[in-house]
Design brief:
alpha/beta; disordered N terminus; binds uridine-5'-diphosphate; binds manganese (II) ion; transmembrane; Galactosylgalactosylxylosylprotein 3-beta-glucuronosyltransferase
Length: 363
């Protein structure tokens, strides 16, 4: 039919030819098919475009994430560096070298003679453990521990030795007759023990003129910075003491020139209105004034002041320490008397029938 159609076109071609071809190919039935395929084509094209767009935006997203990764990695490195730097600065204060503190002082610093009277009571072991561990961080410190008793106890000796500190263990018994109301007991504690320590220093360090002597009771609280400050004392150093004399803090009042102009303290009329924990002296003063010691024969609250008077000091000799008396590095804390059942107290006082673990709790 197709061949016949062509032949019959004759001279009328191309219109007739076109019609013939049109007639041959055109068929109403193919219209939906054409539409369908066009639609498919369009659909395919738009999906392709969409995919292309998606790909582009993912590429941007990936690039952004990579950038963020770099920024965060850089930040992590910066923080790690910062942490290392902080660690380095802290290290000298917290690290121990073979049990010896590093701090930021060499072992060549002037020695500190730290005098501690101590008596037998249920919390004695606890108090001394806390104190010993504070002293552990202080270089070149000689701990003079003076037991209030007729002899040095064996248990005590083993206990003190266990801390690995430089120490000397002495004893001196507080006379019972001074402790009674009839004897006019003025509450002077640690008198004979401190004097025993002073005697020991004067005897064994007779030719030593470099060093500082400090009276450190066993239940106070000490910041190690105090020890760093007291080494440079030429005659007598003074500083604030927290929670003492019915006050939050007792302190010398220092003006902008670094001169002490007053005392914020209990009874500021004393020649030296300071607590036992508020001062330290250069060892050479002990040798210059060999008779200077503590005494039961002074008014209550005058022990420190009278001792400094005996060292021939004046208020002008006082050297403010602890950042010019602007920091509190020692507190006159007091260990509470523990409440014990009468039977427990008896066991403790007689040192009898203590179980092994009870024996480990006390000295
Ligand atoms: N102390 C002592 N014998 C006593 C009472 C006290 O050796 O009979 C010691 C005590 O261990 C401390 C210092 O003397 O190291 C001062 O005593 P306490 O802390 O009781 O006095 P306060 O804090 O009231 O001045
Ligand atoms: Mn005390």
């Amino acid at each position: 039919m197709y061949v016949v159609g062509i032949r019959s076109l004759g001279g009328k071609f191309p219109i007739a030819g076109f019609k013939a071809i049109w007639g041959t190919f055109f068929n109403w039935k193919i219209i939906p098919i054409v539409f369908f395929f066009s639609y498919l084509l369009l659909l395919f094209r738009s999906t392709l475009e969409e995919q292309e767009e998606k790909k582009e935006s993912l590429k941007v997203h990936v690039a952004r994430l990579k950038h963020m990764k770099n920024v965060l990695q850089e930040e992590v490195r910066r923080l790690e560096r910062e942490a290392r730097r902080l660690n380095e600065t802290l290290r000298p204060e917290i690290l121990f070298n073979h049990g010896q503190p590093i701090l930021n002082e060499s072992d060549d610093v002037p020695p500190i003679f730290f005098i501690t009277p101590t008596r037998y009571h249920p919390a004695q072991k606890a108090d001394l453990t806390r104190l010993a561990q504070t002293l552990k961080v202080v270089p070149n410190l000689i701990w003079i521990v003076v037991e209030d008793g007729d002899r040095e106890s064996v248990r005590f000796a083993a206990f003190i030795q266990s801390f690995g500190l430089q120490y000397i263990h002495l004893h001196a018994r507080t006379p019972t007759n001074v402790k009674t109301k009839n004897a006019g007991w003025k509450g002077h504690r640690g008198v004979v023990q401190r004097n025993q320590a002073l005697f020991w220093i004067r005897t064994h360090f007779a030719s030593t003129t470099r060093g500082v002597v400090y009276f450190g009771d066993d239940d106070n609280t000490y910041d190690w910075r105090l020890f760093r400050e007291m080494r440079t004392i030429e005659k007598v150093g003074v500083w604030p003491v927290g929670i003492v004399g019915m006050k939050l803090v007792e302190t010398p009042v220092v003006n902008e020139n670094g001169t002490i102009i007053a005392f914020h303290a209990w009874n500021p009329r004393r020649s030296f209105p300071v607590d036992m924990a508020a001062f330290a002296i250069n060892i050479s003063l002990l040798h210059s004034y060999p008779a200077a010691k503590f005494s039961f024969d002074v008014s209550a609250g005058y022990q420190e002041s009278e001792f400094l008077v005996k060292l021939n000091l004046t208020r002008q000799d006082l050297e403010p320490k602890a950042a010019n008396c602007s920091e509190v590095y020692v507190w006159h804390t007091k260990t509470q008397k523990p409440s014990l059942h009468a039977s427990e107290r008896r066991k403790f006082e007689l040192q009898e029938d203590l179980s092994e673990i009870e024996g480990r709790s006390v000295l």
